[in-house]
């Protein structure tokens, strides 16, 4: 019967090219090595080694067998090591959900530092929008959420760290019909134009909108890049996080307007599922830092 020991023995014979040399390496007598090889060959119904006077060489079948055996042996060692690490709290992957309101450019630095620190954990990055962030935590798709807004789900071991508030800018194209109005805009003036909204990525939790008036049409886009294009073309109006909008306002590409009923700042947080705590998660939570660092890194 094939076993780890028999695969190791075949591998050793293939490496040294001799039953006698393999026996010396394995602290066995040559006859025991020869007998063990013959048992494997009989079980396979194939000759693995050509026997010469003082050496052996692999047959084509033997070359294939040894190649596969080495893969199996490597995987078996990895399985043993991973099992020990799992017993000590290790997880093979860590999934981080980013709300689309945070600065995604910061994630590249986090990824680079994470992979330098962990050689045996895969990092999975997901981009979610609004309630899709909480849903990914609640259903186990993600372990950590950066930039989660509004309410924390109930019924789980959820923890959070304040990230401060997101300030919003109400934007229109510089050529928009509302551009010449120099006072806070009313709902009735706004309602006739489509509201540019990001698509909430939640599937089960009720979806949220960026901003929408009663009886106002939506223009739903997948991300802020597409939203900026729509704003610039005058296809709609709406809110965008100030840290994304500010460069376009400063350059004059977009106009920021005051509303009679402005959108309130949105509290944000770093959230995680404590039930999935692992060394990798603990490292990331420490790496991300306190509330002030989180706000400066991801919103400024």
TrEMBL record:
Keywords: DNA-binding, Transcription, Transcription regulation. Gene3D superfamilies: 3.40.190.290, Winged helix-like DNA-binding domain superfamily/Winged helix DNA-binding domain (1.10.10.10). InterPro entries: LysR_HTH_N, LysR_subst-bd, WH-like_DNA-bd_sf, WH_DNA-bd_sf. Residues 1-59 form the HTH lysR-type domain. GO terms for molecular function: DNA-binding transcription factor activity; transcription cis-regulatory region binding. Pfam families: HTH_1 (PF00126), LysR_substrate (PF03466). Belongs to the LysR transcriptional regulatory family. This is Transcriptional regulator, LysR family. The lineage of its organism: Bacteria, Pseudomonadati, Pseudomonadota, Gammaproteobacteria, Alteromonadales.
């Amino acid at each position: 019967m094939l076993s780890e020991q028999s695969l190791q023995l075949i591998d050793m014979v293939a490496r040294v090219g001799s039953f006698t040399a393999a026996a010396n390496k394995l602290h066995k007598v040559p006859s025991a090595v020869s007998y063990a090889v013959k048992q494997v060959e009989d079980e396979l119904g194939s000759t693995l080694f050509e026997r010469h006077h003082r050496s052996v060489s692999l047959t084509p079948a033997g070359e294939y067998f040894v190649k596969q055996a080495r893969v199996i042996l490597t995987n078996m060692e990895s399985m043993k090591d991973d099992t020990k690490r799992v017993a000590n709290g290790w997880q093979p992957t860590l999934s981080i959900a980013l709300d689309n309101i945070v600065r995604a450019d910061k994630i590249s630095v986090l990824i680079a530092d994470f992979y330098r620190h962990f050689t045996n954990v895969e990092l999975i990055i997901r981009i979610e929008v609004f309630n899709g962030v909480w849903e990914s935590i609640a259903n186990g798709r993600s372990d950590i959420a950066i930039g989660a807004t509004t309410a924390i789900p109930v019924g789980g071991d959820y923890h959070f760290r304040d990230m401060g508030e997101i300030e919003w800018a109400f934007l229109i194209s510089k050529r928009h019909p509302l551009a010449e109005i120099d006072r806070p805009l009313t709902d009735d003036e706004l309602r006739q134009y489509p509201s540019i909204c990001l698509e909430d990525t939640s599937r089960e939790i009720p979806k949220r909108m960026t901003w929408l008036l009663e009886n106002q049409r939506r223009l739903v886009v997948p991300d802020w890049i597409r939203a900026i294009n729509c704003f610039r073309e005058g296809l709609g109006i709406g809110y965008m996080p100030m840290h994304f909008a500010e460069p376009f306002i400063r350059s004059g590409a977009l106009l920021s307007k005051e509303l009679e009923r402005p959108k309130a700042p949105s509290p944000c947080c770093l959230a995680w599922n404590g039930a999935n705590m692992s060394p990798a998660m603990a490292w990331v939570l420490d790496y991300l830092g306190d509330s002030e660092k989180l706000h400066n890194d991801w919103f400024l």
